[in-house]
Design a protein that fits this description.
The chain is of the alpha/beta class and about 260 residues long. The chain has helices at about 45-55, 80, 85-105, 120-130, 155-165, 165-175, 180-185, 200-210, 215-220, 225-240, 240-255; strands at about 1-5, 20-25, 25-30, 60-65, 70-75, 110-115, 120, 130-135, 140, 180, 190-195. The chain folds into 2 domains: about 10-210, Alpha-Beta Complex (2-enoyl-CoA Hydratase, Chain A, domain 1), CATH 3.90.226; about 225-255, no CATH class. The chain contains 11 helices and 11 strands. It has a 7-stranded mixed β-sheet with strand order 1-2-3-4-6-8-11, with helices on both faces. β2 (about 20-25) and β3 (about 25-30) form a beta hairpin. α1 runs parallel beside α3 (about 85-105).
Amino acid sequence: MLFSAHENANTENGERLMVDLEIDDGLAVITIDRPQARNAISLETMDQLETALDGADGAAALVLTGAGDRAFVSGGDLKELSALRTEAQAAAMAFRMRSICDRIAGFPAPVVAALNGHALGGGAEFAVAADIRVASDDIKIGFNQVALAIMPAWGGAERLVSLVGYSRALLLAGTGRIVEAAEAERIGLIDQVFPRASFGEQWRTIGRSLAAAPAGEVKRVMRGVPTTEAVAAFARLWVSDEHWAAADKVMNRAR
């Protein structure tokens, strides 16, 4: 079944949707679609992200991406967020977006960030909340919040450390250095890079492959469960119809 929120292109108050949810055969795709702001995240975008995540609940895999080919997410929407002038307002905004990123990181099924364009500042934090990052070969990524005399606050600094190590993470986020896709792949910040021409096809293939496999169980075990739970998960899969159908295909090919 294919469902897309673009079938209803406006919110209840008549505003254009900034976040699209598409669900097709267990694969949920959330797209931030704000071309006029390079897919920057506003407070309304946060509302719609939460709604999209609600709608993606139960999906076998989730992909996060941006519309167009210029930006994945260019960070927070400075034009709107500049209205936040008190520490309390800034903290509330940071807590809210961090909770969304934490929700992405805790999503039960595998989450892929498909970097169709540049991921800068908060956009890089949004990307590292996913389990897997794939990118077009012409994008750049950087934790460049220091250029605004601020720091990552959506959980990205901590997640960056787990991906590239403490010293490299401090060098990147401390200087705000922006790296190209090839270097980001080399240091482990991005997992796989594809040519621009085939990027859309490639990330969808990965998403569908994850949705069609018991990758959610694999993810749960990788996060750490007691041995008895890991073995029980394997046993449930072993006796499933899907396992025996796949096993029959393998054995038939071997004959």
